[in-house]
Amino acid sequence: MGKVIAVFNQKGGVGKTTTNVNLSACIAENGKKVCVIDIDPQGNTTSGLGVDKNILEYTIYDIIIEEANIKEAIVATEYENLHLIPSSVQLAGAEIELTGMKNREIKLKQAIDEIKNDYDYIFIDCPPSLGLLTINSLAAVDSVLIPIQCEYYALEGVSQLMNTIQLVKKNLNPNLEVQGVVLSMFDGRTNLSIQVVDEVKNYFKGKVYTTIIPRNVRLAEAPSFGQPIIYYDKKSKGAEAYAELAEEFLYLEEDVI
Ligand SMILES: Nc1ncnc2c1ncn2[C@@H]1O[C@H](COP(=O)(O)OP(=O)(O)OP(=O)(O)O)[C@@H](O)[C@H]1O
Ligand SMILES: [Mg+2]
């Protein structure tokens, strides 16, 4: 049975989507079967994987409001072993539509249970909020992968994030764990980045990945070409970092081929 992981931090612009797209692509390149679920109305993971949002028959929105079966919404990306369940702007309204529904916190979980056996890993790209879409994600997963940007106020909001995880654990998903913490947008030339790494390691103890993602302009360019970094520029620092992160991730999962 596959492991389901939410890439989550309610803070915006910390590298959730970049990590989701690129870690998933590297893990799929390692021969694992991966499905990425884009539950952010911004749809950046969907476009970052090269899927045209305008020609989609079904999206995660249809699944959440139970108008389609999850299997109907799966799209094969251009990349081997890498499937996507795309997002749509309609999702922005889903929070409100869900409010009146029975079992509104576990709609996504119920759907994912149907495809869990088909993949080694399912990654969910969460929106930067603590709304019902995020709660649905946290209720549906085995663990949470937390990207943290090496910037001022890196730990701001982290206690709220951990509280949310604890609340979901208590009320909806007792087995929820922290998968790991990824430090992103590291700039080795600044003392600030180095300080943030220390602070985050202190706070999360052994949960922080040894691999740190550097700030790398190729990572910022790749989404506009709809390509994960390992296909856009395999030799870039960003590609090397995400390939290494995937190796570390699989090693810690004891899932090395
Ligand atoms: N390591 C990096 N080096 C350079 N640019 C990066 C890096 N990681 C992310 N970016 C850029 O920073 C911006 C924010 O990253 P990203 O979209 O991954 O964050 P996010 O947490 O998903 O944001 P949101 O909260 O809006 O969903 C994007 O423009 C992205 O291309
Ligand atoms: Mg994002």
Automatic annotation (TrEMBL):
Origin superkingdom: Bacteria
CDD domains on file: ParAB_family (cd02042)
Stored InterPro entries: AAA_dom, DNA_Partitioning_ATPase
Pfam families, per database record: AAA_31
Domain named AAA: residues: 3-178
Designated name of the protein: AAA family ATPase
UniProt source species: Alkaliphilus flagellatus
Organism classification: Bacteria, Bacillati, Bacillota, Clostridia, Peptostreptococcales
